Amino acid sequence: MPTIAQQLIEEGKKQGFQQGIQEGKQQGFRQGILDVIETDLEFSFRDEGLKEMSEISKIEDIDLLHAIHRALKTVKSIDELRRIYRSN
Questions:
Q1: How open is the CA angle 51-77-59, to the nearest 5 degrees?
Q2: Phi, psi (5° rounding) for residue 75?
Q3: pTM, to two decimals
Q4: CB distance 59 to 69 below 8 Å
Q5: Contact status, residue 61 vs residue 77, Cβ threshold 8 Å
C-alpha cells in the first residue's frame, strides 16, 4: 500500500499531466487561429496585411484573436483592423 506521501506525489503528477494537456490544447488552438488570421490577412491585404502578423502573433487572448478573425470578414482597411486589437 502506498504511503500518503506517495499518493500525494502520484496525484500531483496526474494533475500536472492534465494541466499540460490542457495548456497544449490551448496553445494548439491559438496557433490554429493565428494561421487562419495570417491566411485571411494575406488574401485581403497582401503584403501589407502580413506585416501585421508580428504584432497579432503576440496576442495571447483567444477571444481577441477570434474578434480579429471575425473582423477580417468585414474590415476595409488595415487601420480599421488595428483599431480592434489595439483598443484592447
A1: 50
A2: -65, 150
A3: 0.77
A4: no
A5: no
**CA 60, chain centre distance (Å):** 5
User: Distance of CA 26 to CAs 55, 75, 78, Å?
Assistant: 20, 27, 27
Q: Where are the domains of the chain?
A: 19-86
Residue-wise pLDDT for 10-33, tens only, equals 887 888 878 888 888 888 889 999
pLDDT value, residue 88: 67
In what helix (H) or strand (E) does residue 6 lie, and over which residues does it extend?
helix 4-50
Q: Contact at 8 Å (CB) between 34 and 57?
A: yes
